[in-house]
Amino acid sequence: MLSHTSGYPPYQPKGNPVDKYQTLAESVAHILPLPPAHPPGERFDYGGLAMQVAGRMAEVAAGQNWETIFQERIAEPCRMKNTHFTPVDQGGGHSPMLGGGACSNLRDYANFLSMIFNGGRFDGNRVLSEKAVREMQADQLRGAFVNQPEFPARVRGTKHDAIYGLGEWREELDAHGDAVLISSPSWAGAYPWIDKTTSVYGVIIAHVGAPGVGRDHFSGFYSSPELAVLVREVIAKSVPDQPKTSP
Question: Is the pTM of this model over 0.70?
Answer without folding.
Answer: yes
